[in-house]
Write a structure and sequence with these properties.
Structural class: alpha+beta
Number of helices: 3
Distance between the termini: 65 Å
Shape: rod-shaped
Strand order of the largest sheet: 3-4-5-6
Number of domains: 1
Length: 149
């Protein structure tokens, strides 16, 4: 039996399979939670869009120079209801106006409770949210993190 052997032994093949299994087991958890991260990122993007909409409407309200003006006409011709007077809500969109100022909230559900509008992903948990307060125009997105989404 002086033939030259070619190929791998059974033990070498098992060792390679075990090593690949260990690598797969350590790498898999890194890719499992991508959906929560994606939802959190989309909610943070929504929060940024809401902040921009509030500031654009308020800037338009200030440029027109009317503190009694109850609506603002945006660049695309949409009429957005705003707060009037000289308080913290002066010129910021109302709970109805913020949806119009935003344009499209596709993929997000909204619910209103008093002066607060809460946006959540349509197919996501209720803890993953962004809130808008019409009393001062503040957008809060602290709940839009991967742990909540």
């Amino acid at each position: 039996m002086s033939k030259l052997q070619r190929g791998f032994t059974l033990i070498e093949l098992i060792v390679v399979i075990v090593i690949l299994g260990i690598l797969a087991a350590t790498a898999l958890p890194r890719f499992v939670n991508l959906q929560a991260d994606a939802k959190a990122a989309s909610m943070q993007g929504l929060a940024g869009g809401l902040r921009a909409a509030v500031e654009l409407v308020r800037a338009r309200w200030l440029v027109t120079g009317s503190s009694t003006q109850a609506t603002v006409l945006t660049a695309d011709g949409t009429s957005v209801a705003v707060g009037t007077g000289s308080g913290a809500n002066a010129g910021v969109p109302t709970v109805v106006g913020i949806g119009l100022a935003l344009g499209s909230a596709a993929g997000f559900a909204s619910s209103t409770a008093g002066n607060i509008v809460t946006f959540t992903p349509t197919a996501g948990p209720p803890g993953c949210s962004v809130t808008y307060d019409q009393t001062n125009g503040v957008v809060v997105g602290t709940a839009a993190v991967a742990a909540n989404c």
